[in-house]
């Protein structure tokens, strides 16, 4: 049985804290409810909402809004070295990470405290501190919103890239992700090389860290750099880190000897978007109730009653300025609805 809500307020369903309404809203708590909603709203356009942590609402939603609340975590296979864990698409991502850490399984610890849900994670191929979702991903089960057909997407089917997947391109908006399966290590290989993890652990006197130690370090670092959406509306990192040619980077290096970079493959360099935005002078910028966070230039924020249109307009101004100053186009990570 479906509970169908009309003119449903979305203020508490998006981490930017933007006020908007959904003309029709349904909370999906089981595969059966999903199939029923596909039947009831056949022929109508549908949007899917997870944790609302990667969306900017620029207007009220006229489409049927399906909110993924399918729960459940279970071991689906196991051997001496690995655990295969299947998680409902509506599970909170960080809660799922903590579940794996509490069991001593490795693979997701570097992705601690990332907002959102399990079902949304493969769409973005979320990543942080030297790890990406694709590193532990096995497969996902999704339902075609037009036909109701249940389809299994393998690792290769998902076409993962840097903050990319098939669900941001040819499959965009066509599938509701019911569950995701991960392969986790019983004897974890610890990754501490990226960012401040290793230094944080050394500061704490930890020389032989486990997955729980890495998770605590990542949480500590994220909390020190990123604003809590419960206190200041935001979506975390707003822009992707752009990849440019080595030649282009060498040219920028002449004018900006302190420019930061990471190897992105033969002849390519990844430049932190936060560095570009901060160097362009946008860090701490504020106009009315919206702006750029004072501690992290990669984060756009809503201080109170900003609209989604305010946020997108600011993002476009930043994009234009960075392009003018560095000849580098910035791509938004978030989706504008």
Structure commentary:
With 337 residues, the chain is of the alpha+beta class. The chain has helices at 31-40, 93-102, 121-124, 197-203, 211-225, 246-255, 273-279, 308-326, and strands at 4-9, 21-28, 46-49, 55-56, 61-68, 73-78, 82-88, 127-128, 131-132, 137-144, 150-154, 175-185, 233-234, 243-245, 262-263, 268-270, 286-287, 290-292, 300-302, 335-336. It folds into three domains: 4-68, Uridine Diphospho-n-acetylenolpyruvylglucosamine Reductase, domain 2 (2-Layer Sandwich); 73-185, Uridine Diphospho-n-acetylenolpyruvylglucosamine Reductase, domain 3, CATH 3.30.465.10; 233-336, UDP-N-acetylenolpyruvoylglucosamine reductase, C-terminal domain (Uridine Diphospho-n-acetylenolpyruvylglucosamine Reductase, domain 1, Alpha-Beta Complex), CATH 3.90.78. Strands 6-7-12-10-11 form a five-stranded antiparallel beta sheet, with no helix packed on it. Strands 1-2-5-3 form a four-stranded mixed beta sheet. It has a four-stranded antiparallel beta sheet with strand order 13-19-18-17, covered by helices on one side. Strand 18 (290-292) and strand 19 (300-302) form a beta hairpin. Helix 4 crosses helix 5. The model has no long low-confidence stretch (mean pLDDT 95).
Spell out the key features of this protein.
Uridine Diphospho-n-acetylenolpyruvylglucosamine Reductase, domain 1, 337 residues, 20 strands, Uridine Diphospho-n-acetylenolpyruvylglucosamine Reductase, domain 2, Uridine Diphospho-n-acetylenolpyruvylglucosamine Reductase, domain 3, 3 domains, 8 helices, alpha+beta
